[in-house]
What does this fold into?
Amino acid sequence: MAYSKALILYPSRRSALTGTTNEYLQPTGAALSGWQPRPHPQRVVLAGRYCRLEPLAPPTHTKTLWEAWSKAEDGRDWTYMSVGPFAREQQFAEFVASAAASTDPLHFAVIDQQTNCATGTLSLMRIDPANGVAEVGFVAFAPELKRTVQATEAHYLLMKYAFDELGYRRYEWKCDSLNGPSRHAALRLGFRFEGIFRQAAVYKGRTRDTAWFSVIDSEWPLLKAAFEAWLCDENQPQGKQRQSLSSLREKLAADNNGRKIMLSVRPLVKSDYSAWLALWQGYLTFYDTQLSDALNLLTWQRMLSEDEPMYALGAFDEQQKLLGIVHMIYHRGTWSSGDRCYLEDLFTTPQARGQGVGRALIEGVYQHAEAKGASRVYWHTHETNATAQMLYDKLADKPGFIQYRKNLA
It folds into this structure.
């Protein structure tokens, strides 16, 4: 049976393309009747259960912040910051004084509720009240604050302030594209990866490609509910989580009024490149990997070429928004006459997880492979990827083989 890379193969339900047009029948963004510029963030105290945010104020916070940072083994935590590391307390005090005087960025100190000491800072910056947009930045957490419930709550408090109290529409996270820990933190907190701005800045005498992430107001209610479930006493006995933040988001998304996304799965085409690249970069971030633009483009071209054994499918919602991607490669095998289909990459947007997107993509691969006359579909996943394995166990057999690998290039 012949198979075309342009054939739509897996319409799980009929997809409806909806939108707004003007008098020329051109598509336009949805109208925002009554929109007014939002207030500028103020120097307020934001209190939580485990920590509170106070407007950065010298000398009140200078000494405890310096003491917290002095516990670091070296200056690596300042590598991707535009300032630091600081060799002397006076240098640090001058930075704190300058930061405290700024209104954009507007800096806050993170105060531990038990010790009453400042152990880190973060800020709202690039504040745009006219459009209701702000960025969280200058996140500088001392070693004792990192990977704690206080660190997560600090982000929750500032995000809640932006959305619930100020009424902002968009909340951004940007970082050096090479800053793996920062990119992972953004995804863990529920930000959506949007892409890489190449050569976006020069700092500390070097170039920077900037990775962009965001949360928008329509996504905030689910994220807020997940934060609050994660921070509750039942989930934090002795400060140790029972359920992860991402798993709580997925569960809430699945339980969200029982709503099921209307999906269609089809081969990706040339016009899908930008949407594919955003998800592909999110997938690479998950595996702490960065590939060159040239290799990304080559991969895309190969998957669209009729002469290549590589294919890409995408899962789309009712508005034709790309929610997930899967890549596959066909190859010969010694145990059968038919080709085998290797499912190499599978990724869904964090906001769509738990709603059947991964299942639909895998079933789309099965259908694709059957049409190509393949004898087997197979894939790998990391042993720590427990959430994905719960789905995979329902869709395929686990043969028990162990992978060995030697990289040659």
